[in-house]
Amino acid sequence: MKVALKHFEENPNTNGELRFPFSRGKLIASFERITGKSFGRIPMTPSLHSSTIGAAEAEKQLEDLIKAWAYWWAWEPG
Fold first, then answer.
1. For residue 18, pLDDT beyond 70
2. Structure pTM?
C-alpha cells in the first residue's frame, strides 16, 4: 500500500490499475479502515462522472487526498 501511495503521489494522472490491484479510491478507503482516520470524503471515480466538470473536481479531490495521506504517512512515526 505504501508503494501504491508513492506511485499515485508521483503520478497523479494515472489510476494505476495495471500496476496495482486497486484504484486511488480503494487505496484511500483501505487507509481509512486500517487507521480509523479520514482526510475527507472519497469522491466517485472521475471516469464515472457524466460531466467533465464533475470529473475534474473528483480528480482534484483524489489528488488532494493522496497528498494528505502521503504527508501523514511521512509524518507518522514508525
1. no
2. 0.79
